[in-house]
Amino acid sequence: MLTLDSIQTLACGGLFLLVGYMIRRRVPLLMRFSIPAPVIGGLLVALFMLACRHWGVTPIRFDTAWQQPLMIAFFTGIGFNASATLLKVGGRQILLFLALASGLAVVQNLLGIGMAKAFGLPPLFGVITGSVTLAGGPATGLAFAPLFDKAGIHGAQSVALANAMAGIVLGSIFGSPIAAMLIDRLHLRPAHAVAGANIEAPAPIETTDTGRAADPTYAGLKNLVFMLLAMGLGAWISNGLSRLGVTLPSYIGAMLVGAAIRNLDDWLDWFGLSTRGMELIGNTALSLFLVVALMNLHLWDLAGLALPLLANLAVQSILVLAFCCWPLLRLMGRDYDAAVMASGFTGFMLGTTANAVACMSSLTERYGPAPRAFLVAPVVGAFLIDFTNAIIITGFVNGWH
Q1: I need a labelling partner for 280 at 20 to 30 A (CA). Which of 354, 364, 383, 400 fits?
Q2: CB 182 within 8 A of CB 325
């Protein structure tokens, strides 16, 4: 049996990440459903390991020591992008949309718990198949999986991946049709003279340190150093909270520190951090985290759980679609932009922000621009919901453990 150390495992993951991108470019269906390239590459390895297990062989053993630091780096990047400046741009609309998404995340967990009990499964199984993997997506699911494993959910990582992947597909399938139905039935059309007249997408929060900001090496190094600083300080915060008996994922402290540094920098302009730079580091860490995590995924743990997963996904999909048709559409203005937001809401509450943007883009290509929707939905889906969802999940884990 070949054993790869942590660096070799990371290199192998990077190779299959590139393979995932290559496959996605050549298979239009994968691009249409916004299936992430790390998921494609990692699943290739996981399926190969599943086949080898069927033959009674374990050809490779991976050292996933880099998995947790990469995961923490991604969520730290989420923290650095949580700028109060963005809330000022969208104002009430962003806060309302976030409140609706957070409220539905709670309902997703309650519904998941009910479905789990119906199948004789532990309540926390319903949480991991609820907002953890639907509102949260594969990254949040894999990040929380160790906590659920410790709480007695066997194969939590495999369950998280399966539910998140199915949610991505469903979000892509339902996102555009539900909004198109609302637009046609209610005769909604973009108000070109009004929509977005006073709303512009937030400009990237960039600074220009005279002399130094022109050096891309310095700018990149500065962003990386502050991210590492947030991760280090965040580890102390997370450890302190753990000693108080609060069950939290390891990234919470780093994400909070990142958000604090970002908003301090917005206020005082001390550090000159680049939003795009932090996003690049965070997204790179996410891609490597996902592919490494999936390479070591035990798909055989899903045996016997297909029916509960499918039943839960069916009910959760109905919940999200019904929520979009009435309270969300009505509260967001019952206009064309609100319908496009419903499409994005379906995308990221069942899948990821990539699904949300893809669904909204397909609608605007057909019906016309929706500037307010493209301001509100991506801001909430990309990182604000991760903050509130982490709090919601933590409450359920501590309450039902």
Answers
A1: 364
A2: yes
